[in-house]
Amino acid sequence: MCRYALGLKLVLLAYSYGIISCRKIERFARENLVAMWLTQEQRPTYRAITRFIVSEELKEMIQSSFKEFHSYLKAQGMIDEASFIDGTKILANANKYSSVWKKRTIKYSELNVEKARQLIHEIKQAEVKINVNEEKFDIDQLDTVIALLEQRIEELNQRVSETAKVSPNPAKQERRHAKKYLHALDHCRQKHLEYQAQAQIAGQRNSYSKTDHDATFMRLKEDPMRNGQTKPAYNLQIMTNSQYVLGYSLMQNHTDTRTLIPFLHQLDPKRRFGSRDCR
């Protein structure tokens, strides 16, 4: 617990100085006198700092700190029973031009499926001899079709070497078509995997950032261009009482309509608020 406390002090101090890079925090711990005093002149590596920031221990420390702080304020009579919850959107440390929209992903995925089916139809018309059922083709069968094309190309290579003096050589023509469709289908397969990964990352959200998968594109209050441009951000929910912060949560929802109940359940896992209070 002692090393976790020292790590938390170092990270909070570095963040207060605007230092968020783990490598820069490592250097900060070596060169800054206050940081050296807080960490008792220990020199954690950037890997150790990274593991600490994403660890479950840090999350439990923060949650327990808020619980102890709440209990102390209540015992001292510094807060009452009325608490207030409000939210604000904070800009994520991500590229604002790195958006991935779920609707666009679904649209492009459907177009990719149609393109793959069209390629299968063209393969049949080009008389490339592979055993593929065009009517029952599914996008998940691309690996099988590509394997059949690769096998057919190997057979054609053998035939071309055996009939090198034949001109025009029909085996060469078929091999040329097979290679063209092999590259096209492989591109469709890569796009299919890419769209699957994008949909999985997005989950129930409508968008995310390529450089910060947890950030969702939202409209912020700060809009210098005045064009309603969406930016990668988080929805920060805070509960206060008598100007004391008693809890917080970073949400991925772009509105506050669906954040109240999850936030209350996070503050009170035993759900002592009751269903009537959560409405």
UniProtKB/TrEMBL annotation:
Keyword Coiled coil appears in the UniProt entry: yes
Coiled-coil residue spans: 116-166
Pfam families: DUF772 (PF05598)
Lineage: superkingdom: Bacteria
Keywords, sorted A to Z: Coiled coil
Domain (Transposase InsH N-terminal): residue spans on this chain: 7-53
Identification of the protein by name: Transposase InsH N-terminal domain-containing protein
Species whose genome carries this gene: Lactobacillus gallinarum
